[in-house]
Amino acid sequence: MKKELVNELSSVIKGGRVAAEEPMSAHTTFQTGGAVEVFAEPADMDELKKTLGLLKSKGEHFYLIGNGSNLLVSDKGLRGVAIHLAKGFGDICIEGNTLICGASATLSQIARAALAHSLTGFEFAAGIPGSLGGAIVMNAGAYDGEMKQVVKSVTLMNYEGETVKKSAEEMRFSYRHSLLKEEQLIVLEAEIVLQKGDAEKIKEKMDDLAARRREKQPLEYPSAGSTFKRPKGYFAAKLIQDAGLRGFCVGDAQVSEKHCGFVVNKGSASSADIYALIKEVQKRVKASAGVDIETEVICLGEFD
Length: 304
Prior knowledge:
Layout: H1 2-12, E1 17-23, E2 35-41, H2 45-58, E3 62-65, E4 71-73, E5 78-84, E6 92-95, E7 98-102, H3 107-116, E8 119-120, H4 132-138, E9 141-142, E10 145-146, E11 151-158, E12 163-167, E13 185-193, E14 195-196, H5 199-216, E15 223-226, H6 236-242, E16 249-250, E17 253-255, E18 262-265, H7 271-289, E19 298-300
Parallel strand pairs: 2-5, 3-5, 4-19
Antiparallel strand pairs: 1-2, 6-7, 7-13, 8-14, 9-10, 11-12, 11-13, 15-18, 16-17, 17-18
Protein backbone atom coordinates (compact mmCIF):
# COMPACT_ATOMS: atom_id res chain seq x y z
CA MET A 1 0.00 0.00 0.00
CA LYS A 2 2.76 2.45 0.93
CA LYS A 3 4.69 1.59 -2.22
CA GLU A 4 1.58 2.45 -4.21
CA LEU A 5 1.23 5.74 -2.33
CA VAL A 6 4.89 6.59 -2.94
CA ASN A 7 4.36 5.99 -6.66
CA GLU A 8 1.22 8.14 -6.73
CA LEU A 9 2.87 10.97 -4.83
CA SER A 10 5.84 10.78 -7.16
CA SER A 11 3.45 11.42 -10.05
CA VAL A 12 2.41 14.80 -8.56
CA ILE A 13 5.69 15.78 -6.89
CA LYS A 14 8.07 16.26 -9.80
CA GLY A 15 10.41 18.98 -8.55
CA GLY A 16 10.52 17.79 -4.96
CA ARG A 17 11.19 14.44 -3.36
CA VAL A 18 9.23 11.41 -2.17
CA ALA A 19 10.71 8.59 -0.09
CA ALA A 20 9.55 5.55 1.84
CA GLU A 21 10.71 4.81 5.40
CA GLU A 22 12.53 8.11 5.80
CA PRO A 23 14.41 8.31 9.14
CA MET A 24 13.01 11.23 11.13
CA SER A 25 16.29 11.48 13.04
CA ALA A 26 17.55 13.28 9.92
CA HIS A 27 14.76 15.85 10.24
CA THR A 28 14.81 16.74 13.95
CA THR A 29 17.38 18.73 15.91
CA PHE A 30 17.27 16.11 18.70
CA GLN A 31 18.60 13.74 16.00
CA THR A 32 16.31 10.96 17.27
CA GLY A 33 13.18 9.21 16.06
CA GLY A 34 12.16 6.30 13.89
CA ALA A 35 11.12 6.34 10.25
CA VAL A 36 7.98 7.84 8.77
CA GLU A 37 6.18 5.55 6.34
CA VAL A 38 6.20 8.14 3.54
CA PHE A 39 8.13 11.42 3.30
CA ALA A 40 6.80 13.99 0.80
CA GLU A 41 8.61 17.19 -0.10
CA PRO A 42 6.58 19.24 -2.60
CA ALA A 43 8.61 21.84 -4.47
CA ASP A 44 5.96 24.54 -4.92
CA MET A 45 2.37 25.52 -4.17
CA ASP A 46 0.97 23.52 -7.09
CA GLU A 47 2.70 20.35 -5.92
CA LEU A 48 1.57 20.99 -2.33
CA LYS A 49 -2.03 21.45 -3.44
CA LYS A 50 -1.93 18.23 -5.49
CA THR A 51 -0.31 16.38 -2.58
CA LEU A 52 -3.06 17.47 -0.19
CA GLY A 53 -5.72 16.47 -2.71
CA LEU A 54 -4.21 13.03 -3.22
CA LEU A 55 -3.84 12.36 0.51
CA LYS A 56 -7.40 13.51 1.18
CA SER A 57 -8.78 11.24 -1.56
CA LYS A 58 -7.06 8.28 0.09
CA GLY A 59 -7.90 9.26 3.66
CA GLU A 60 -4.20 9.33 4.53
CA HIS A 61 -3.06 10.95 7.76
CA PHE A 62 -0.20 13.41 7.42
CA TYR A 63 2.09 15.55 9.55
CA LEU A 64 3.58 18.92 8.65
CA ILE A 65 7.19 19.38 9.65
CA GLY A 66 9.54 22.31 9.32
CA ASN A 67 13.14 22.31 10.49
CA GLY A 68 12.25 19.83 13.23
CA SER A 69 13.69 22.14 15.87
CA ASN A 70 10.69 21.68 18.15
CA LEU A 71 9.84 18.02 17.54
CA LEU A 72 10.33 14.77 19.42
CA VAL A 73 9.44 11.84 17.17
CA SER A 74 8.80 8.39 18.62
CA ASP A 75 11.44 5.71 18.17
CA LYS A 76 8.62 3.61 16.71
CA GLY A 77 8.38 6.06 13.84
CA LEU A 78 5.27 7.58 12.32
CA ARG A 79 2.41 6.05 10.41
CA GLY A 80 1.20 8.02 7.42
CA VAL A 81 2.95 10.84 5.59
CA ALA A 82 5.29 13.62 6.69
CA ILE A 83 5.06 16.71 4.48
CA HIS A 84 8.09 18.97 4.41
CA LEU A 85 8.14 22.09 2.24
CA ALA A 86 11.16 22.11 -0.07
CA LYS A 87 13.61 24.94 -0.64
CA GLY A 88 11.29 26.37 -3.29
CA PHE A 89 9.25 27.73 -0.39
CA GLY A 90 12.29 29.52 1.00
CA ASP A 91 12.48 32.67 -1.12
CA ILE A 92 13.11 36.01 0.59
CA CYS A 93 12.05 39.17 -1.28
CA ILE A 94 12.65 42.65 0.13
CA GLU A 95 10.50 45.67 -0.69
CA GLY A 96 11.50 48.73 1.30
CA ASN A 97 11.35 47.71 4.95
CA THR A 98 9.15 44.66 4.26
CA LEU A 99 10.49 41.14 3.79
CA ILE A 100 8.23 38.64 2.03
CA CYS A 101 9.56 35.29 3.17
CA GLY A 102 8.65 31.72 2.25
CA ALA A 103 7.76 29.23 4.96
CA SER A 104 10.89 27.12 4.60
CA ALA A 105 13.27 30.07 4.92
CA THR A 106 15.18 29.72 8.16
CA LEU A 107 15.11 32.48 10.74
CA SER A 108 18.88 32.86 10.45
CA GLN A 109 18.56 33.38 6.67
CA ILE A 110 15.90 36.04 7.23
CA ALA A 111 18.06 37.76 9.86
CA ARG A 112 21.03 37.84 7.48
CA ALA A 113 18.86 39.27 4.69
CA ALA A 114 17.58 41.96 7.07
CA LEU A 115 21.16 42.81 8.07
CA ALA A 116 22.22 43.05 4.42
CA HIS A 117 19.53 45.68 3.88
CA SER A 118 20.14 47.53 7.18
CA LEU A 119 16.75 46.51 8.60
CA THR A 120 16.40 46.16 12.36
CA GLY A 121 13.88 44.35 14.52
CA PHE A 122 14.65 40.74 13.64
CA GLU A 123 17.92 40.34 15.55
CA PHE A 124 16.17 38.39 18.33
CA ALA A 125 15.42 35.53 15.94
CA ALA A 126 18.85 35.19 14.32
CA GLY A 127 19.88 32.27 16.53
CA ILE A 128 16.56 30.41 16.69
CA PRO A 129 17.19 27.16 14.75
CA GLY A 130 13.82 26.94 13.03
CA SER A 131 12.03 27.72 9.79
CA LEU A 132 9.63 30.62 9.37
CA GLY A 133 6.63 28.32 9.12
CA GLY A 134 7.33 26.62 12.42
CA ALA A 135 8.19 29.94 14.06
CA ILE A 136 4.79 31.35 13.09
CA VAL A 137 2.96 28.25 14.32
CA MET A 138 4.65 28.59 17.72
CA ASN A 139 4.99 32.40 17.76
CA ALA A 140 8.66 31.71 18.42
CA GLY A 141 10.63 34.18 20.45
CA ALA A 142 13.84 34.92 22.30
CA TYR A 143 15.48 37.83 24.09
CA ASP A 144 12.23 39.79 24.54
CA GLY A 145 11.28 39.43 20.87
CA GLU A 146 8.45 37.40 19.33
CA MET A 147 7.24 36.76 15.81
CA LYS A 148 4.01 38.63 16.52
CA GLN A 149 6.05 41.83 16.87
CA VAL A 150 7.30 41.72 13.27
CA VAL A 151 4.70 39.75 11.26
CA LYS A 152 2.25 41.90 9.30
CA SER A 153 0.38 39.13 7.48
CA VAL A 154 0.59 35.43 6.72
CA THR A 155 -0.44 33.60 3.53
CA LEU A 156 -1.83 30.16 4.32
CA MET A 157 -3.22 27.11 2.56
CA ASN A 158 -6.03 25.07 4.08
CA TYR A 159 -6.24 21.31 3.70
CA GLU A 160 -8.60 21.78 0.75
CA GLY A 161 -5.76 23.45 -1.15
CA GLU A 162 -7.27 26.95 -0.94
CA THR A 163 -5.09 29.95 -0.07
CA VAL A 164 -6.05 32.68 2.36
CA LYS A 165 -4.25 35.71 3.76
CA LYS A 166 -4.52 36.56 7.45
CA SER A 167 -3.48 39.74 9.24
CA ALA A 168 -1.30 39.57 12.34
CA GLU A 169 -4.40 40.21 14.45
CA GLU A 170 -6.26 37.35 12.78
CA MET A 171 -3.31 35.04 13.53
CA ARG A 172 -4.21 35.19 17.27
CA PHE A 173 -0.60 35.27 18.37
CA SER A 174 0.07 34.76 22.06
CA TYR A 175 2.80 33.06 24.09
CA ARG A 176 3.93 30.05 22.00
CA HIS A 177 0.54 30.02 20.28
CA SER A 178 -1.12 31.05 17.04
CA LEU A 179 -4.22 30.40 14.95
CA LEU A 180 -2.40 27.38 13.51
CA LYS A 181 -2.71 25.63 16.85
CA GLU A 182 -6.50 25.86 16.41
CA GLU A 183 -7.13 25.45 12.68
CA GLN A 184 -5.79 23.19 9.92
CA LEU A 185 -3.71 25.64 7.92
CA ILE A 186 -0.25 25.54 6.34
CA VAL A 187 2.06 28.56 6.29
CA LEU A 188 3.15 29.46 2.75
CA GLU A 189 4.76 32.85 3.31
CA ALA A 190 4.66 35.87 5.59
CA GLU A 191 5.20 39.61 5.39
CA ILE A 192 7.70 40.78 7.99
CA VAL A 193 7.90 44.51 8.61
CA LEU A 194 11.09 45.94 10.12
CA GLN A 195 12.63 49.39 10.53
CA LYS A 196 15.55 51.06 8.85
CA GLY A 197 18.62 50.86 11.00
CA ASP A 198 22.39 51.01 11.04
CA ALA A 199 23.99 47.83 9.67
CA GLU A 200 26.92 48.05 12.05
CA LYS A 201 24.66 48.32 15.11
CA ILE A 202 22.43 45.51 13.82
CA LYS A 203 25.46 43.25 13.40
CA GLU A 204 26.74 44.21 16.85
CA LYS A 205 23.42 43.19 18.39
CA MET A 206 23.31 39.91 16.45
CA ASP A 207 26.89 39.15 17.50
CA ASP A 208 26.10 40.01 21.13
CA LEU A 209 23.05 37.73 21.20
CA ALA A 210 25.05 34.94 19.51
CA ALA A 211 27.78 35.28 22.14
CA ARG A 212 25.19 35.15 24.93
CA ARG A 213 23.72 32.00 23.40
CA ARG A 214 27.12 30.32 23.19
CA GLU A 215 27.87 31.27 26.79
CA LYS A 216 24.55 30.22 28.33
CA GLN A 217 23.10 27.53 26.06
CA PRO A 218 24.38 23.99 25.33
CA LEU A 219 24.79 24.51 21.60
CA GLU A 220 27.40 21.75 21.45
CA TYR A 221 24.71 19.06 21.85
CA PRO A 222 21.62 18.18 19.81
CA SER A 223 18.49 19.61 21.44
CA ALA A 224 15.18 21.24 20.64
CA GLY A 225 16.19 24.50 22.23
CA SER A 226 14.23 25.55 25.29
CA THR A 227 12.31 22.39 26.21
CA PHE A 228 9.71 23.87 28.57
CA LYS A 229 7.34 26.80 28.39
CA ARG A 230 7.70 29.57 30.93
CA PRO A 231 5.11 29.03 33.68
CA LYS A 232 3.31 32.20 34.64
CA GLY A 233 5.25 33.90 37.41
CA TYR A 234 8.21 31.51 37.19
CA PHE A 235 11.20 30.50 35.11
CA ALA A 236 11.24 26.84 34.09
CA ALA A 237 15.04 26.57 34.29
CA LYS A 238 15.11 27.84 37.88
CA LEU A 239 12.33 25.47 38.93
CA ILE A 240 14.27 22.58 37.41
CA GLN A 241 17.51 23.66 39.05
CA ASP A 242 15.79 24.12 42.43
CA ALA A 243 14.43 20.56 42.12
CA GLY A 244 18.04 19.36 42.01
CA LEU A 245 17.86 18.23 38.41
CA ARG A 246 20.85 19.98 36.84
CA GLY A 247 22.73 17.26 34.94
CA PHE A 248 20.00 14.65 35.59
CA CYS A 249 20.15 11.86 32.98
CA VAL A 250 18.02 9.12 31.52
CA GLY A 251 20.33 7.16 29.27
CA ASP A 252 22.11 9.72 27.10
CA ALA A 253 19.34 12.31 27.54
CA GLN A 254 20.35 14.98 30.02
CA VAL A 255 19.07 18.13 31.69
CA SER A 256 21.83 20.42 30.50
CA GLU A 257 24.42 21.33 33.10
CA LYS A 258 24.82 24.64 31.30
CA HIS A 259 21.12 25.62 31.16
CA CYS A 260 18.50 23.62 33.05
CA GLY A 261 15.77 24.66 30.61
CA PHE A 262 17.40 22.55 27.89
CA VAL A 263 17.20 18.79 27.48
CA VAL A 264 20.10 17.59 25.35
CA ASN A 265 21.15 14.44 23.52
CA LYS A 266 24.63 13.66 24.83
CA GLY A 267 25.29 11.27 21.98
CA SER A 268 23.11 8.20 21.69
CA ALA A 269 19.88 9.15 23.44
CA SER A 270 16.66 7.68 22.10
CA SER A 271 13.40 9.59 21.88
CA ALA A 272 12.17 7.30 24.67
CA ASP A 273 15.06 8.48 26.88
CA ILE A 274 14.24 12.13 26.20
CA TYR A 275 10.53 11.57 26.79
CA ALA A 276 11.15 9.71 30.06
CA LEU A 277 13.47 12.48 31.24
CA ILE A 278 10.91 15.17 30.42
CA LYS A 279 8.19 13.30 32.31
CA GLU A 280 10.45 12.84 35.34
CA VAL A 281 11.40 16.53 35.33
CA GLN A 282 7.73 17.51 35.23
CA LYS A 283 6.95 15.11 38.08
CA ARG A 284 9.78 16.32 40.32
CA VAL A 285 9.14 20.02 39.69
CA LYS A 286 5.49 19.49 40.57
CA ALA A 287 6.52 17.70 43.77
CA SER A 288 9.09 20.30 44.81
CA ALA A 289 7.40 23.55 43.74
CA GLY A 290 3.77 22.63 43.09
CA VAL A 291 4.08 24.00 39.56
CA ASP A 292 3.09 22.25 36.33
CA ILE A 293 5.61 22.90 33.56
CA GLU A 294 4.46 22.28 30.01
CA THR A 295 6.72 21.46 27.09
CA GLU A 296 7.40 23.66 24.09
CA VAL A 297 8.48 20.46 22.34
CA ILE A 298 5.78 18.69 20.32
CA CYS A 299 5.71 14.89 20.57
CA LEU A 300 4.74 12.94 17.44
CA GLY A 301 3.93 9.23 17.46
CA GLU A 302 3.53 6.68 20.27
CA PHE A 303 5.37 7.11 23.55
CA ASP A 304 3.55 5.84 26.65
